[in-house]
Design brief:
Elements: H1 15-24, H2 28-36, E1 79-82, E2 88-91, E3 109-118, E4 121-124, E5 127-131, E6 134-135, E7 142-143, E8 152-153, H3 154-167, E9 171-175, E10 186-191, H4 197-203, E11 208-209, H5 218-227
Parallel strand pairs: 5-10
Antiparallel strand pairs: 1-2, 3-4, 3-9, 4-5, 6-11, 7-8, 9-10
């Protein structure tokens, strides 16, 4: 019986080959770096958030209080200004107001006993009031209440018409429209029966509508012109 042929013996890999193969494996470089640096400290983990304590207390000092004197303030010091020519000029600042006086509230309502002052104005408790939206006739305008009477200035006819209207009851109520700056306020006035005194004068032709204040009496003026009342009879 013949003996079986023997297999060739495998050669053991050299240590250098084994080391090179280990370097090619994934993560081998990281493992080697960690193994070669034994003294390296591990990565710091985030510390747990400390519980919030009480808010800090901050003390705020009291603010200084400046007291305004009741009397007049001390006079302002003069200011010295030197010009280009070298001369000095002393300028004194204007005195400061120590007390503030508020302006009175705007007048909105006027009522009481009235009397006639002219063709388009009244006096209510001593206060002069102009009729709002009404313009006085011109000096050349003539008016007549009937065909049998002679014409006379329309301002006289307007005064007579207002006096006759207030003869029965001189109590009137006036409303002052806002936004006026004239010293004498203009107001829409009604008598005790509710008659608009300004509209009455325009409708009778004793006054004209004032477009700078209101357009409310344009209809009454158109009717007086068409019917040739008052001053429209002679224009």
């Amino acid at each position: 019986m013949q003996p079986l042929p023997s297999r060739p013996a495998r050669l053991a890999p050299a240590p250098a080959v084994i080391a090179a193969a280990l370097l090619l494996l994934p993560g081998a470089s990281t493992a080697r770096a960690q193994s070669t640096t034994p003294d390296a400290t591990p990565a710091a983990t985030p510390a747990a958030a400390a519980p919030a304590g009480d808010l800090p207390t901050v003390e705020i000092g009291q603010r200084p209080v400046h007291v305004v004197p009741e009397g007049d303030a001390a006079p302002a010091r003069p200011v010295t200004i030197k010009g280009r020519d070298g001369r000095e000029t002393a300028l004194r600042a204007p005195p400061m107001r120590t007390h503030y006086t508020p302006s009175p509230p705007p007048l909105t309502q006027i009522s009481g006993t009235a009397r006639v002052t002219d063709g388009v104005s009244l006096s209510v408790h001593g206060r002069k009031v102009r009729l709002f939206g009404v313009r006085a006739p011109e000096a050349r305008d003539l008016c007549s209440t009937s065909d049998s009477t002679a014409p006379r200035p329309c301002s006289d006819e307007a005064r007579g018409a207002l006096s006759a209207q207030l003869a029965a009851n001189d109590q009137i109520s006036c409303r002052v429209p806002p936004g006026q700056r004239a010293p004498v306020p203009a107001a829409v006035c009604h008598d005790a029966n509710g008659t608009d005194l300004g509209g009455m004068l325009v409708a009778d032709g004793f006054a004209l509508a004032d477009p700078t204040q209101s357009y409310d009496y344009f209809g009454a003026e158109a009717a007086a012109r068409q019917l040739r009342r008052g001053l429209w009879h002679y224009r």
